[in-house]
């Protein structure tokens, strides 16, 4: 009742109260917008950083086929990783680590050509291809075309699944 009496005796208090409520309303709306915008920008920045990390990791994995650096494979493959090779055989992380150490005996070079990364929450799908040259065997030159599934687990992005196939090198366009 005191508030009503105060407002009747002092009409300016009513204006001040209305102004304060309006100002508070707009302050809260503005703060909400700032927080939402800041969060969206942070997520975009984080996504760009993660995309760069995935692309660089894929490049390092491709090169490890020729240089035998298994530390890349140990870092980027999850412990429960499962892959499918070009012949349709399943392989796990331990096999990939062992094969990477031995790969330089078979491969002269292997280079990442392209990779596209798409995000689905805490999952990313990387699809790409890499060109390689073997020391012996048929074909001597070809490409791996692959899809890798990355997940964010315990603060680390790692590959949990991979599928590879061998494709011929694209035909060279004649020079004009």
What does this structure look like?
The chain has 176 residues and is of the alpha+beta class. It has one domain (11-167): Roll (Nuclear Transport Factor 2, Chain: A). The chain has four helices and six strands, in the order H-H-H-E-E-H-E-E-E-E. A six-stranded mixed beta sheet has the order 2-1-6-5-4-3. Helix 1 (2-9) packs across helix 2 and helix 3 packs antiparallel against helix 4. It is elongated and about 85 Å long.
List keywords for this structure.
47% helix, alpha+beta, 4 helices, Nuclear Transport Factor 2, Chain: A, 6-stranded mixed sheet, 35% strand
Topology summary:
Elements lengths: L1 H8 L1 H57 L2 H7 E8 L5 E3 H10 L4 E14 L2 E12 L6 E13 L2 E12 L9
Parallel strand pairs: 1-6
Antiparallel strand pairs: 1-2, 3-4, 4-5, 5-6
Helix pairs in contact: 1-2, 2-3, 3-4
Which of globular, elongated, flat, extended, rod-shaped describes the shape? elongated
CATH architecture: Roll
CATH class: Alpha Beta
What is the string of SSEs from the N terminus onward?
HHHEEHEEEE
Mean pLDDT equals: 84
Number of domains: 1
Estimate the helix proportion, in percent. Answer: 40-55%
Query: Which spans of ≥5 residues are poorly predicted at pLDDT below 50?
Result: 37-44
Number of helices: 4
Q: Please summarize the sheet with the most strands.
A: 6 strands, mixed
Distance between the termini: 93 Å
**What's the β-strand tally?**
6
**CATH topology label:** Nuclear Transport Factor 2, Chain: A
For the largest sheet, list the strands in their spatial order.
Answer: 2-1-6-5-4-3
* Strand-residue proportion: 35-45%
């Amino acid at each position: 009742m005191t508030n009503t009496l105060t407002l009747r005796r002092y009409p300016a208090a009513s204006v001040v109260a209305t102004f304060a409520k309006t100002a508070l309303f707009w302050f809260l709306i503005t703060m909400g917008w700032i927080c939402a915008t800041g969060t969206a920008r942070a997520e975009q920045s984080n996504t760009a950083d993660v995309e760069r990390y995935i692309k660089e990791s894929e490049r390092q994995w491709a090169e490890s086929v020729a240089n035998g650096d298994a530390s890349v494979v140990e870092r980027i493959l999850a412990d429960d990783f499962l892959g499918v090779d070009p012949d349709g055989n399943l392989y796990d992380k331990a096999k990939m680590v062992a094969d990477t150490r031995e790969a330089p005996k078979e491969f002269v070079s292997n280079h990442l050509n392209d990779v596209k990364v798409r995000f689905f929450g805490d999952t990313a799908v990387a699809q790409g291809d890499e060109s390689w040259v073997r020391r012996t065997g048929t074909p001597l030159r070809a490409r791996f075309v692959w899809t890798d599934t990355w997940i964010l687990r315990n603060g680390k992005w790692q590959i949990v699944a991979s599928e590879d196939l061998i494709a011929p090198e694209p035909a060279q366009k004649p020079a004009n």
